[in-house]
Structure formats: structure tokens, C-alpha cells
Amino acid sequence: MGLLTIIRKVKRKEKEMRILMVGLDNAGKTTIVKRINGEDTSRISPTLGFNIKTMQFKRYRLNIWDVGGQKTLRSYWRNYYEQTDGLVWVVDSSDTRRLQDCRDELHGLLKEEKLIGASLLIFANKQDLKGSLNPEEIAKVLDLHVMDKDRHWQILGCSAVTGEGLLDGFNWLVSDIGSRIYMLG
Amino acid sequence: MDHPTEDEDSQDLRLARSLVQEAKILHDFVGLVKEANGEVDVVEFRKIQTIIEKYQEQCQLLEPHLEAIISPLMETLQNRVAEAGTVEAVDLSVVKKLCSVIHTLITVCGYKTVVKFFPHQACDLEVTVTLLERCHQEVTVSSVLKEESTGDWETKCTLLLWLSILVLIPFDMASVDTALVDCSEIHAGSTVPPLVQRIIKVCKEYLQSPGPVREMSGVLLSRLLTRPDMRHALRDFIDWSNEALSTTLDESIKIFLVPGVVGVLAAIFKVGGRDMLLDTTIPVWQVASHLATSSAASRSPLLRKLLIKLMQRVSLMHLPPRIATWRYTQRSGSLALNLASPTSKTESRTEIGMDLKDTQSHDEVEIPEEELDVPEIVEEVIGQLLTGLRDKDTVVRWSAAKGVGLVTGRLTLTLADEVVGSVLELFQPTEGDGAWHGSCLALAELARRGLLLPSRLSTVVPVIIKALHYDVRKGPHSVGSHVRDAAAYVCWAFARAYSSTLMKNHFQKLAPALLTIACYDREVNCRRAAAAAFQEGVGRQGDFEHGIDIVNAADYFSLGIRSHAYCAVAVYIAQFEEYRPSLIDELLNVKISHWDKGLRELAAESLNLLVKYDVSYFAGHVLDTLIPRTLSADLCERHGATLAVAAVIRALHELNFKLSADKERVVAGIVPAIEKARLYRGKGGEIMRAAVCVLIECTANLRVLLPPKVEKVLHDSVDENLKHPNSDIQACAVAALKAFIAGYLLPASAPAIARTTSKYLQILKNDPNPAAQRGAALALGALPYDLLHPSWKEVMDALCAAIRLKGNPADDDAETRVNAVRGLTSVSETMCYAEFEHVFIPGETSARPLIVVRDQLMKVLFHALDDYAVDNRGDVGSWVREAAMEGIERCSYLLCRIQTPRGKVVKAETPRRKVVNIEEPTTGSEIMREGCLLTDAMGLQVIGGLTKQAVEKIDRVRDAAGSTLQRILLNSHVPEDWIPHKQELKEIVSDDSTLNWAAPAVSFPRLVKLLKFSEYRPFLLSGLVIAVGGLADSLGKVSGGALIDYLTKECSHMGADSSEDVSPSLDWLALELGHVLSGYAGVDRGVIPTLKTIDILFVRGVFSASQPLSEQTAGNLLSLVRHELKGCRDVAKLLVGTSILSHFASLEGAVRKQSTEQLLNLLFHRYPKVRRFCAEQLYLLLLQMGEQLVGENVDEALEVIGETCWDGPLDDINAERDQLYGLFQVEPPPRQPLVPSKSKNSRLVVRSEDENESYSSLVDAAGY
């Protein structure tokens, strides 16, 4: 294998990203995935198990792993941590009762060694619903500012139903991963 | 611009276009499969597999379609299983077909890509396990051989891969295990669900399989066992594997099992978390390190590679993952902000070029050293990885390099820097090429990860420059191209990893080295790799000096061909002063002494092209360096140096540079010194001879002042080399002679003539050494008019004599004849041009060159066209014919008073593709405007002779003849009326200079059209029969087809409108064939093909009853055929003759009787083979037209012929003989007594009889 083969491989590798979508149940993970993939979002049932979606985004191929958020499933999330480039944490901004639960799960997740280098995008979903907290409020509740200083993160409001904010979020995530994927590849 | 991918892009485009088409096929196929529920013929599946396999190198093109292909196939698979109810009822053949296609996708796109599209519902898990078990059990009954063809292992691989994603379901495995629900079988004390146990059991068995199922089961196990709920199973498995690895097993199992188990462990350690695996590391490490020293590992690169991976991952378990804060990063954005500032300070300091040590000490002060307790195991692993870098196998070195990068990334700065230091220590001259390669890879890996701190760069760069030039001679070749490639990789990685400001200084050092490799490396991959690295550097640097220009010139394609890289790209780059010195140094110090002769020659050529940039430097320093090395003890060096001196001198001459007197003396002294050192002798003498000739040529061109003694030495040297049997040396010597004469022997003096013309004449006439004769013939051709003039006629006569075949193989030397033809052509040109230019002075004989050419030389050349001499090398006459064709062409131009550029007179070897550049005809035509120079007969002979050569059997000759023909016909200076039918001929040969005359399908259909002109028929047919009736089957088919096509189509048409020919008969053809046959009389080389051609014409119905030949023509042809058969002992000829006779017998008229008679004679020929063949022919003939031959006795005759054993002894068929002669009413010839009464003769005859019989049996055995 010579340099020319390496260049070819690297170029290919640089174009692939593995993204893990997690969050509490009913946060809207699957809806977001379906929405950005242009599929029908009118009828979505809770994810029992997981989905993988491969799609082209800008010049990258995203492999999005969308895992169910039910409490029983959460202990198996670690099945999916391997080689994750980006982490999307989806929050149901209207579900104020479970935000504490959400915070605990998130901080537990971020302790995982395997996810140490992954960029973190937090979607404050369901901004279209009345009574939802805005991203700043969510950030406060989730204690995002105490996060490890090495972590690249971003919180954005969005609505999976209207599609608002989704593009901004993925734009940030993909460009952030793209800026360092070569180094860690 | 990205050159490596440019190539890719164009390929991408092509495949992308074709994919549009195939995508439909693929989708249609998938739809069909889904509709038919998998019941599609296996052939369709194979077709699809073939389409997919095409994308092996470009799998990303398939990726957009993968989902649409895989999902329906897997759904169909699920359906089949669901419909069948139980797994036992599933039709495995359908499963196998489906899995085969999917497995093809796995091999093309990689399992990681494909697995994402597999369904992963929990409900599939148990069914799939059962299905896998069923396939697994089935294998035990089927044989290994069968396994290959039926898609068994493909199915197993696919199912294993499917399971590897199914086991990722986020549910407790126990909850999907029906066995547990049934409560029928719960293992007491075991917390491992039975389903999992079943999977592990199958996988364990596969781990000792040699095939790809081993890898797939490893993938599955690593996924399954690293689930959070599988801790127990994981521990069990690790215990099992430790045991499997440490116990001594049967060698035949172990050889597959050990890599399998190590592979699984490596995979588990990759996927699994540290919390899960940390406490298992100690035993695993022990087993692995023990294995690493075992003999099994030393034998298997695969095992060593897997062990390196495993050990590296084991060590990572002891190092918590971190983003090394000390890591260098050039990226902006939040990452840089978050990082500690010291690194960026380091960067700025390195930039201003502070002392390295100082910087380092500074670093240590500023970066708070993190606490890291490095366990011993990690240090040991690093030791192993460093050893792995030096491994003899590339794959192992790669894994080790990657390991070094990964482990170093988790270390603290000081420790990491120690690792970097150890890697750098591997760059020692005492280390092998493997170590250099491995450590280059490691450096590149470290740089990519930002682990090689900028402060280290100034130490690393010189090492990398060394590695870029790594080339170690090993016997007749050298090793190191992989090191150079890897060093280019390091440069590439540096360019990408470090900021442009930081790299600027270093890149300035690297760039000349990279460009040297890009231009001058022997290996194409190194040239391209260096160019790619340079390009990356330029790209990151922005405005690097001349960077963009060079990148444009030195790209993937332009460097692909070595000579282009040497003579074009390098010359372009050398115009920039920054790079010129390193390019020149590389040539002088390395490449002109390279072990590859071709490379030395190219190096000299490149040097020649560089002289123009700095003439005085080359005339001074470069020559001073080179000249002493012409006497080097190393053959490569002295050869290269000699060539290089010649190349430099040549360039100086071209640039009109005059050497100083001192320098001239030194240059003049080179050849005598070489001779004095006796470097012509022994090994490499031949190589030196050619080089010395080149040097003499260049010296002479430069008119270096020679002392008389040296002049004599040089001339002797040239003469000596002219006699050399190696034709390349002779060619060099002739070139040298020309230059030498021009430089030192003109104007002609009597001694000069004695030293040249007379001397070579004597050698040509009298020297018994053929090599000397060859040289002399060439040398004569190279002489200028002044030297030739006194004895030009004698020279021509001698050359003509040398061309003639003497009929004695010992005296006939094909190369001498070839060279004599060439020499003669050149001498003619020299003399005739002199005549054109009015410088020719008639000597005592009143002969004039043009007249001699017309009256004498052309005849000799036509004669040379008939040189069909053969020796143990085959048809060596073809060389003479080729040379003669060129000679005829050139002499024809002379006769037409066309001048061709003179420079090409000697170097006739290089075929000139293009039509020669024609100058205006000289105005000197009034010397002899008698018009008598050109005769029609000669024009016909020129074209006819070439035509004959153009339709014979050797491709190369046809090519030469066809293009010569084309050139002559298209030459507008050749008078119209000289060549009969010139206009029509022009149309036939066309003016397309790209026509490939060597291809039968191109040349024959064109040239057969010449049959239209009766003048050309004899020439054309006499050549054509050789091709049509020759031994080469495909050639015969094409040429015969062309002939028959022409005859059937064109000829009926021609017969109809030609007024003189009343009937459309082919009498002319039979007549011409008769002439050809009699022309070849006695020469079997021509006769047999001619007979075969006649036979073919009969068989293909060209000579048929519908187009009857006139009685006379038929009779004439028949008698010629009979004449050839008379007393013939060649079986092949007899058989063809018999066949022709039987055709004649089916014709009307007198020929029937004659041929029948002859057939009957042949029926009782001495050779059984002939008898039997003749009997077959007669039998067929009787069936066809028995009544015309034997009246009502047909049945009787048929019976006799059919019942007789024709290959038995001749004595046994006397009765049948008489009977048949009677039936055919033919007077039997007087029976020759089989055993003559004279006892002396009888032995002879009997012996010959035996010989023939054995011969015939031999022919029989060969299935003739």
C-alpha cells in the first residue's frame, strides 16, 4: 500500500461520519431523522430497538444511528458508542417535568470514555409547542456550562415537525466534525 | 488540482455513466426477486454478481443503491423463512442464492458498509441463529469441493454478519430467547441465555475454519460479547480463548484456530469498554506476548499483525482515553481556544528559529505534566510495537505504526516524546529497509494525529530527506522504493498536519528532495507519491515559489512515463534555480551510476537537456566531476559517466560553446585512457563499447582538437567496434564513424580514403568474419561523397555482390545482406545527390550514378525482395526483404529526382512512419532530362513487388510493405505515368496514414482489389497464395475470405462490363494461378500454398460448373498440377493434389478423364495415407456423379471402394486395383514391381517404404 492508496483511503474516510442520536423517549429523535431525510413524519411510533439511516449531507455521508430512549433501553446505549464522531442529544423542550431526568442521563452519557472526542449537538426540540423552554433555558437546566472544557458542543432550538433549526444544527455538527476528523481518523 | 484523484475522477465518471444503465438492471432484478419471492434462476443471480464485481475498485458508486438492493433481498429472505413456518422447512437453495448476491456486495463494499442495511428487529434474531445452525450442520455432510460452488460459505458469512447487527438490539438477550420462555431448558448456574450459547458454539467452531467465516464469526463474537449484559459470557470466552491459545493443539487445527482466536480478541478489545475488559488484560497479555515469540508467529504475517493489534489494544485498556492537551493542532475554532496555549507558543518560537533544546525545556516548564501512572504492560507493548515497526512484512509494520500512533496519543508529553525519539532511532544505516519503512509510517501516523510536536520537526526533516533517497543496492537490483514512498507519505502528512507558517522553512528543505524523487525516481509510484506530497505542500503553503507552475507540470500523468519525467518535467523544473542544484546533484551522484542501464541513459539524456541553464557550470564543474569517473572500478559508474560526458559535450556543441584548450585535452584523453585501462574486456565490455562510440561521436561533433596519436586511437576504436557482433554497438559505431569523418577526415585526402573506403571495401569483399562484413557494409553506407568518389562504382558492385545469396548457408549471412541493402541505398543516395547538385565528377569510367541505380541496383533490390532464406531463427530473409523495400522506395525517389533529408541515411533501422518530408525537385534535372530514367516496366515492378510483400504472411513485413506502398503512391512528385493505374491505386490504398497494414482484416480486403488490373495480378496472386494457403489458420481465413468476397462480388460485375471478356468466366484467374504455380515450380514453400489456394477456390465454389473454365485453361492448370504431383513424396502436397484432382474430375470435358486416371493412380499410391484419402475422394465423387464416370457400374465401384482396406499393405489390393481400372475403363499403368529384382536396390526401396509408412502413421497420429 503506497501513498497514493493512502490518499485515496483518507479521502474516502474523511467523507464518512457516524452520528448517534440519543435522548429520552418521546424527545423526537426518529422524527428528526425522518424529517431531514425527507420521509413522512405524520405517523411515528416509539422506536423499539434502533434505526440506521445513511444519507448524504453536503459532501459527507452521514450514518445516523437512532436508538430508542425508553428507560429499559438506555442501559444498552453503550452498544452503539463505538467510533462515534458526533452525538445528537434531543430534548423535549416542552416536557419540563423530565428535564432533571434528561440532565442526569446526558451527564451520565458524557462520562463514557468512548464518546470522549465526539462533538455534541443538543437539539431543544418541539420549539413549536407552546410552553416550551427556549434553548438558553434548557442549557441552564441541563447544566451545560459545567461540561468538560475539551468538549465541542452546541445547543440549538428546533422543531422536527416544522423542520426549523434542523439544518443549522446539522450544519454545525458536520462542520465541527469535519474540522477534526482527519486528526482522529 | 488533485492529481491522484483526477485519474479517479475520470474513472468515476465512466462508471457513474454506466451505472445509470446498470442501476436499472440491478433495481429490476431486485424487483423481480421480490415479486418471485426469491424463485429466480441462479443464472440471473450470477449475472448480477458479475455486474457488482465490476465495482470492486469504485464501491462508493454502488453505495447510493445499496439500500434499494439489500433491503428487498433481505425482506425476501425474511419472507421465505416466515412462510416456511419452521426453519427446517426453508428452502435453503433460495437462501443461498440471496446470500450469494449479498456476499458479493460484502466483498465489494466491505461488511461495515453493507451491515447497516440489514434489518435488525429483535424477532429475527432467534430465527437467524437457527438458520445458521442448519447451514452449519448441512456442511458437515457436503464435501469441501461442493462448498465452493453452492454458496454455502457465502450464506454462512452473510448470516453471521446479519447476526452481528441483530445482537446489537437494546434488549436483554434473555427476553428474546424463546427457550427461556418455554422454561424447557435452563442451565443451572449459567446466566448465559441458551440462544447466546448456541451462537458462541457455532462461532467457536468457525474460528478454526480457514475461510472467511472465521473473520465474520469474529465480528459477530466481538459485538455479542461486548454487550453490557454479556459480562459472564465474555469472561467465559476469554478463559476459553486463553486456554485455546496456550494449550498445544494439533498443528493442523492450530494453524487456523490461533489467528482466529487472536483476531476475535483483538476485535473484542477494540469494541469493548475499559471497565469491562481491564481485569482480563493480564492473562490475555501473557498469552499474546508468549505467542509473539512462538514459531507460529514467526511463520505467519497474519498472526503477527493480529497480535500487534491485540497487544496495542490491550495497552489502551490501561490508558484512559484523552485528548492529548499537549497535542499540536493547527485547526482554528473552539478546539484551539480550549487547548492550552503553550503549543501555540511553541509554534511561534520554532518559527523564529530558536534553539531546539531551549524550546523543549521551555515546554516542560510551561506544560503542567499530567499525572499518569503508566503500567509496565504499556511499556512492554510499546516495545513490541517498535519491534513490529521493523517487521519483515508490510502489513505488520502498518499495524505497528498505527498502534504507535494510537498509544502515543494517550501518553503524556514526556513519554510521547520518548516514543518519538525511539522511532527516530530506527533510522540507522544498520537497520534494514523494513525498519526505515516502518518508522516512516509511524512518523506519518504521529504527525497526522498531531503527536509529533513542531519542536521535533527540525530533527525529523533531515531524516526524512535521507529516507526520500533511500536506495540500497542488493545484487543486481536495489531495494527501498517502499521507503521512499513512505517518506513521501510523511511529507504529505506533515503538509496536512502543520500550519503553513510553521512548515514553511521545513518545506523549503523538503521540496527539492521531493521534486528530485518526482522527476528521477526509477519507480512510477514513488514519482507520483513525491509529486502528490509536493502538491499537498504547495496547496497548504499557498504561494510557494513556483509551486503552482511545478504542480501543473509535474502531475500524475506527466510523471507516469519515466522518459517524460526525465526529459520534460525535470527540464522544466530545473529552470528554477531553487531546484536545479539538487536535480543536477541527483543525476551526477546517483542516477548516472544507477544499476539500471536504461536509467543511466535517461540520466545522461536529462543532463544533456539541463546544460542550457548553466553552460559554464557544466563545462567546468560537471565535466571535472564526471571525467575521472569514466575510469571507475564500478561498471555502472564508468558507463554512466562516459555517457554523461558525451551528453554534456553534445549539449555544449549544440549551444556553440567552445571548450578551453586544457579541457579539450582532458576530453580527448578519455577514450585512450579507457582503452589503456582495458575496460573493453570482460564483464561490461560491450556496454562500455557502445558508450565510447557515443562519446567519440560527440567529441567529433564538437571538433575537439585531437593530437594525431589520439585521432588514430579513436578511429581504431571505431573500426574495432564496427566489427563487433552486437548490432547495437555497430549502430553506435557507424554513428561515431560519420561524425568522426566529418570532424577529422575531410576534406578527403589519399590516406583518409585508404583508411576508410578502401579498407571497408576490402573487409566487405574478403574478411571471413561475418560481423566484420556487416560492419563494413554499414560503414560504406555512412561514407560521404568525397571519400566514396574515387571508387564509388566498386563500392556499389561489392555491395551488390554481398546482397546476392550464394546458396551456401555457411557463407550467407542474413545480417550482412540486410546491412548491404541499407549500405547500398545510402551510397546510391550520396552519389545521386552529388549528381543532382552538380558536384559529381565522372571518373575514368563514364558511369553515372543515376544510370547505375536504374540499370543495376534496382535489379539487385528486386532480387533481394525474393530473399526467402531461412535458418534456425526462421524467415531471416524477411529482414532483407524489409530492407529491400525501403531501398526500393528510396531509389525510386532518386529516379524520380526527389531528395529526401540526408540525415537519415544511415539510421535506417528506425522505421519512419510519416511520409518523408519532400523537398522540391532539384532544378538540376536538365542534366538528364532524357526521361529515360523512368521506365514503365520498373514502376510496375516497384508497385508489384511491394504489393506481393503486402499480402504475404508475416505481419511485420505486410506492415512495412503496406506503408511503403502508401508513401510511394501518395507522393505527388512521383510521375503519374510511371505507375500504371496510379490514380486507382491511390484510392485503393487510401491516404489514411493510421491504417494498420499488419492487421489482415485491414490489408487484405483493400489489396485484393488490385486484381482488377491484369498487370498486377501475377504479383498479387503470387503473394496472396502464400497467405491464403499458408499454415496460419486465422490469416488464411481472413485473406481467403477477402479473395473470395472480391471474386464473387467484383468479378461478376467486372466480367459483365468488360467488352473484351465475353463470358464472366474466371479463366484469367486459373491462368494466373497456373503461372504462379509454374513460377514456384519445385519450391514447396510456394507450391503447396498455391495448390491449397486452388483447392479452396474449388471448395468455395469459385471455380464451379456455373462459371466453367475454358477447356484449354482447365487442361493447362490440370497438367501443371499433375506435373507437381509427379514423383512427389510430400504427403501434404499429395493430399491437396488429390483433392484438386477430384474437383477436376467433376468438371466437363477432357479434364475429367485425365484427372480420373490420375486419381486411380493415386488410389494405388505407395503411401497408405494417400490411398485412403484418395479413396474417400473417389467415393464422394462416385456418389455425386457416378454415372458420368463409370456408367451403370456405380454401385459396384462404390462397393469396391467402400469395402477395401486402403491403408493396409499395397500387395493385398491388387485384385481391387484391376477391378477398378476396369470399371473406370482406364488402361492401368504398367505395374511396378514392388520389390525390384535387383537386391541392391531392394533394400533401399524397402527401407523407404518403411519410412513412409511410419511417416504416414506419424501423420495419422498427429491427426493431420
From TrEMBL, chain A:
Transmembrane segments: none annotated. Mg(2+) binds at T30, T47. Gene3D superfamilies: P-loop containing nucleotide triphosphate hydrolases. It comes from the Eukaryota. SMART domains: ARF, RAB, SAR. GTP binds at G23, L24, D25, N26, A27, G28, K29, T30, G69, N125, K126, Q127, D128. One of its GO terms (molecular function) is GTP binding. Coiled coil: none annotated. Keywords: GTP-binding, Lipoprotein, Magnesium, Metal-binding, Myristate, Nucleotide-binding. InterPro entries: Arl2, ARL2/3, P-loop_NTPase, Small_GTP-bd, Small_GTPase_ARF/SAR. Belongs to the small GTPase superfamily. Arf family. This is ADP-ribosylation factor-like protein 2. It comes from Riccia fluitans.
From TrEMBL, chain B:
The keyword Acyltransferase does not apply. Keywords: Chaperone. Residues 941-1133 form the Tubulin-folding cofactor D C-terminal domain. Residues 1231-1264 are annotated as: Disordered. It comes from the Eukaryota. Pfam families: ARM_TBCD, ARM_TBCD_2nd, TFCD_C. Residues 302-548 form the Tubulin-folding cofactor D ARM repeats domain. PANTHER family: BETA-TUBULIN COFACTOR D (PTHR12658), TUBULIN-SPECIFIC CHAPERONE D (PTHR12658:SF0). This is Tubulin-specific chaperone D. It comes from Riccia fluitans. The lineage of its organism: Eukaryota, Viridiplantae, Streptophyta, Embryophyta, Marchantiophyta.
